[in-house]
Design goal:
By secondary structure, the chain is mainly α. 67% of the residues lie in helices and 0% in strands.
């Protein structure tokens, strides 16, 4: 049986198409992590508030 996989380094045109595809995939924007950091800050503030309430109350 022959291998259906074509090596992109086999010819220049295939390699250029392969390299362009890799660049396009790398250029995608990552989702913002700001909501996660805000949630972590809120949880920390609530935890500090509970600890302060228990120590003072």
């Amino acid at each position: 049986m022959s291998d259906p996989h074509i090596d992109p380094a086999g010819n220049t045109q295939a390699f250029r198409a392969f390299a362009h595809q890799q660049d396009a995939a790398a250029a995608k924007e990552q989702p913002s992590r700001l909501p996660i950091w805000i949630a972590v800050a809120v949880v920390l503030l609530v935890a500090l508030g509970v600890v302060a309430y228990l120590m003072l109350g």
